[in-house]
């Protein structure tokens, strides 16, 4: 008799029944073990080990060679969902292909990042797609669909969205709280996640490190009340690395790790990423929580069930039926072509006075200069390059090497101290260098090499290339190209191909020494220690060691001799050429990255000097910015005839830029975020109230340097025949775009909506659709948009619901958020929201219309919001409160200590709040208040009071 397979092995059964069967076969210890990121094998049931988490933001990361596509913000700049879907498919295929060769590669991919690019100073802006929730969700849907695949049952990979929720600062990211009002929450931050989840290609989310309204994201009630209410599909919530421990260690939100673990598991976290591959601390905490009655087995089973459903969907239990099981698509010709196409489509032409494109057939000399002219920069979430193209490479290939001159523009310097000149000894090439797992020299490992001789000081000087990246941070590089770096032993060596690593070891600060003319110390940023000359070489203090030049004697004093200024070399090259391309920008590991926010929008001073020197020598100067974020290029925009921007474009970046400059491709990238004129235009980094502080193109009332959606072309387009009509739950919109220029090119018509006479502050305009299309000269194409009527709405804080107000709405079509070409009008019927029914509903403190200086905090550790005084006037405004025939009193629910000042019309009452037993001990305090009719209500908070709710009693009570 043939033995029947265990039900969980039976592919004829639905996944749910198979999961039920497998779950009941697992012991409690086996189930607990599955809750850690690195779940061990269960040999007795034939289950393999499983790992949640494989980084795949714009290619397979951290697992050696892979196809490297443009940064996420560059993919956002393409405004092309179809292209991004193909990129996601290619990345998913490479994950599968690498998984077949290396079981460290996981199929649960932690990508994409859908945090909105609210503030351009955010250090991780390179990881997001846009400041607009609609564009972000459209690109995220495309990428996740590519990663997921189109099989109805089995998934190519299982994408997890990062980072839930309202996460836009690295400074204090594990202890700061984002104060997010209900309107901003529902209209902005949730939208990017919601649309992607509802599209059906998302397997889960990762909570962010920060707190929202005083409560850590890892215990957020929104995981159940919002996220899991959006879909019937099981979603896995994977913690961010180390975040479970942060709940106690840095945030001090819970007293014990058992309490924290229980709270996060009950809130909806399923997989704990903590303590690396060592699962013992987390599983011990879960067992401890069970023993204390903080959890029960049902809580464990709920999380394990979700994880098992994920594993079934990835084909783990049905390899013979998994359509992606034998995927071997890796570094294919198609992937290389797609990387080039994506890099080309990401290029944004910011300004062009007719200088571009350049004609390669003209045989004219082009000077390619700047600190990034011969660079192909990667970021923290890049794979290892298999192919590499710098702007210099691309221009030499396209225009002919004989027509290209190059000057990097670094400052060439020598450093001298009392012991002599800083010197880089020749390396002993016979020694075996440090190699990675693939056998190749890995840049991340080069930084930690100890087989090379350390620097010395003596009679022979070594030339060094100095780059000032701004904010006082410099790198130093020896003539052969390797950066000065510090290894674990503390010695300084010329050992790194590029700055990199979780803690960058290649950056320094050049600090003047008071009272010592021309004297400076060299501070190593990665260790926070000064560079000193010792008998055995140049070093910083290693771990557990103190050397001369630390503490009371902080470092050797150096003097710098400049042998050539970078701007002089750039000026010579510029003067010798017909046209100059200055390539500027950032290194994605320096001054803005994960763990580090930017401090300014300014281009580093050294790079500012380079473009000015180039332009002074040759007015035909183009500035090509390659960066992970916007700059305030106000002077350059006013001075130079042409500007371009692209995010770091991956392996094909240089070829793509050269093809755009040569006119082989007409640029059609569009800015995914606003470019401001100066730092003064930005709110504080921790100000998450985009409505109140007028942030992003939605509310910004100033004149940006370059607006959201901006991007020029080598052709010209006209817009016509805009038609918009209401059709049930949709607004049907059509328009015609015509290429009236002489070259084939892409255009990106953008559709915006605006409420004409809203009852509350609404966006100046909001993106409702976009489409990238290719048109030959003279060709025209009709473009159709379907806009759900609900997209015209807003969150009605007065009634706690989504509302589409009746009235007139403009449908605007154009080439950017400020280049509106056509306007149509639609009228929407509906029920007005009406005034606040405060007598029956009361007022939740956080449901204000406007605020000044207050902060939303957690009402309890489990759910709810309260409002407390922050800085400034600490005022709350609730508009159009309906007091009907009148009130006789007011009831304030508050904790802490202070006072609540309530003003209605000409009546003001002060409600004192005596000290309560802690921030969560709410008391009800009553006072007399006479108010009638409909009027605005103002509240002023003082002291440490935490206001949760206001209720009113009527005259007849």
UniProtKB/TrEMBL annotation:
One Pfam family linked to the record: Fn3-like
GO molecular function: hydrolase activity
SMART domains linked: CBD_IV, Fn3_like
Domain of life: Bacteria
Signal as UniProt keyword: yes
InterPro entries reported in the protein's UniProt record: Actin-crosslinking, BXL, CBM6, Cellulose-bd_IV, Fn3-like, Galactose-bd-like_sf, GH, Glyco_hydro_3_C
Domain Fibronectin type III-like: 747-817
Keywords linked to the UniProt accession: Hydrolase, Signal
Domain called Cellulose binding type IV: residue spans: 836-954
SUPFAM superfamilies membership: (Trans)glycosidases (SSF51445), Actin-crosslinking proteins (SSF50405), Beta-D-glucan exohydrolase, C-terminal domain (SSF52279), Galactose-binding domain-like (SSF49785)
Keyword Cytoplasm in annotation: no
Family under the similarity heading: Belongs to the glycosyl hydrolase 3 family.
UniProt name for this protein: Glycoside hydrolase family 3 C-terminal domain-containing protein
């Amino acid at each position: 008799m043939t033995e029947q397979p265990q039900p969980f092995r039976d592919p004829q059964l639905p996944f749910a029944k198979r999961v039920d069967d497998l779950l009941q076969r697992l012991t409690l210890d086996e189930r607990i073990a599955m809750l850690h990121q690195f779940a061990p094998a269960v040999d007795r049931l034939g289950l393999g080990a499983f790992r949640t988490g494989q980084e795949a933001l714009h290619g397979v990361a951290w697992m050696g060679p892979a196809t490297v596509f443009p940064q996420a913000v560059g993919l956002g700049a393409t405004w092309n969902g179809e292209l991004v879907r193909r990129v996601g498919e290619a990345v998913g295929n490479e994950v599968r292909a690498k998984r077949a060769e290396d079981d460290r590669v996981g199929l649960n991919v932690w990508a994409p990042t859908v945090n909105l690019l609210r503030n351009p100073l955010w250090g991780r802006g390179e990881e997001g797609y846009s400041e607009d929730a609609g564009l972000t969700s459209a690109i995220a849907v495309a990428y996740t669909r590519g990663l997921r695949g189109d099989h109805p049952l089995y998934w190519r990979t299982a994408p997890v969205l990062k980072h839930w929720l309202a996460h836009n600062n690295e400074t204090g990211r594990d202890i700061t709280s984002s104060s997010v009002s209900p309107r901003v929450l529902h209209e902005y931050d949730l939208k990017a996640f919601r649309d992607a989840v509802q599209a059906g290609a998302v397997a889960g989310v990762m909570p962010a490190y920060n707190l929202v309204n005083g409560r850590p994201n890892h215990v957020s009630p929104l995981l159940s009340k919002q996220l899991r209410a959006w879909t019937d599909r099981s979603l896995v919530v994977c913690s961010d690395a180390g975040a479970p421990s942060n709940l106690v260690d840095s945030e001090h939100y819970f007293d014990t790790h058992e309490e924290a673990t229980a709270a996060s598991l009950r809130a909806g976290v399923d997989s704990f990423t903590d303590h690396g591959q060592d699962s013992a601390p987390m599983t011990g905490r879960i067992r401890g929580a069970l023993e204390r009655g903080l959890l029960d087995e049902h809580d464990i089973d709920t999380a394990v069930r979700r994880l098992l459903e994920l594993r079934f969907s990835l084909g783990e239990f049905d390899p013979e039926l998994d359509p992606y099981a034998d995927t071997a698509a890796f570094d294919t010709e198609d992937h290389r072509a797609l990387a080039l196409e994506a890099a080309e489509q990401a290029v944004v032409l910011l300004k062009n006075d007719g200088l571009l494109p350049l004609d390669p057939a003209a045989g004219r000399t082009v000077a390619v200069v700047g600190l990034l002219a011969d660079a192909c920069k990667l970021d923290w979430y890049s794979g290892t390059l298999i192919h590499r193209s710098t702007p210099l490479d691309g221009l030499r290939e396209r225009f002919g090497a004989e027509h290209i001159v190059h000057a990097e523009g670094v400052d060439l310097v020598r450093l001298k101290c009392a012991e002599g000149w800083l010197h880089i000894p020749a390396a002993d090439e016979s020694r075996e260098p440090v190699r990675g797992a693939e056998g190749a020299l890995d840049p991340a490992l080069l930084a930690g090499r100890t087989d090379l001789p350390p620097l010395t000081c003596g009679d022979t000087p070594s030339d060094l290339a100095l780059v000032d990246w701004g904010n006082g941070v410099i790198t130093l590089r020896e003539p052969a190209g390797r950066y000065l770096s510090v290894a674990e032993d503390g010695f300084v060596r010329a050992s790194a191909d590029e700055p990199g690593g979780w803690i960058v070891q290649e950056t320094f600060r050049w600090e003047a020494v008071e009272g010592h003319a021309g004297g400076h110390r060299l501070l190593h940023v990665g260790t926070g220690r000064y560079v000193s000359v010792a008998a055995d070489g140049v070093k910083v203090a290693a771990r557990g060691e103190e050397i001369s030049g630390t503490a009371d004697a902080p470092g050797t004093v150096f003097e710098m001799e400049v042998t050539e200024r970078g701007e002089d070399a750039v000026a010579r090259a510029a003067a010798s050429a017909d046209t100059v391309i200055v390539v500027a920008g950032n290194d994605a590991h320096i001054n803005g990255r994960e763990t580090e926010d930017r401090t300014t929008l300014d281009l580093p001073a050294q790079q500012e000097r380079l473009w000015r020197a180039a332009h002074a020598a040759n007015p035909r100067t183009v500035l090509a910015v390659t960066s992970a974020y916007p700059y305030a290029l106000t002077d350059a925009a006013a001075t130079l005839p042409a500007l371009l921007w692209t995010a770091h474009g991956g392996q094909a970046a240089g070829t793509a830029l050269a093809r755009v400059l040569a006119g082989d491709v007409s640029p059609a990238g569009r800015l995914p975020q606003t470019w401001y004129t100066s730092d003064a235009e930005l709110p504080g980094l921790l100000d998450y109230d985009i409505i109140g502080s007028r942030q992003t193109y939605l509310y910004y009332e100033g004149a940006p340097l370059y607006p959201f959606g901006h991007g020029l072309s080598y052709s010209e387009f006209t817009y016509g025949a805009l038609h918009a009509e209401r059709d049930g739950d949709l607004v049907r919109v059509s328009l015609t775009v015509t290429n009236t220029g002489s070259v084939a090119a892409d255009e990106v018509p953008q559709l915006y909506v605006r409420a004409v006479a809203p009852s509350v502050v609404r966006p100046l305009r909001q993106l409702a659709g976009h489409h990238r299309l290719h048109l030959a000269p003279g060709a025209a194409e009709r473009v159709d948009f379907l806009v759900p009527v609900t997209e015209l709405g807003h969150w009605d804080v007065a009634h706690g619901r989504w509302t589409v107000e009746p009235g007139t709405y403009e449908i605007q079509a154009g080439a950017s958020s400020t280049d509106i070409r056509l306007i149509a009008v639609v009228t929407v019927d509906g029920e007005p929201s009406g005034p606040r029914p405060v007598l029956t509903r009361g007022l939740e403190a956080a449901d204000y219309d406007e605020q000044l200086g207050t902060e939303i905090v957690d009402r309890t550790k489990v759910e709810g919001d309260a409002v407390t005084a922050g800085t400034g006037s600490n005022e709350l405004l609730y508009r159009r409160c309906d007091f009907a025939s009148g009130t006789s009193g007011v009831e304030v629910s508050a904790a802490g200590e202070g006072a609540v000042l309530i003003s209605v019309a000409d009546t003001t009452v002060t409600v004192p709040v005596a000290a309560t037993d802690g921030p969560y001990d709410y008391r009800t305090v009553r006072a007399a208040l006479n108010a009638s009719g409909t009027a605005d209500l103002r509240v002023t908070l003082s002291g440490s009071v935490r206001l949760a709710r206001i209720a009113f009693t009527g005259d007849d009570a």
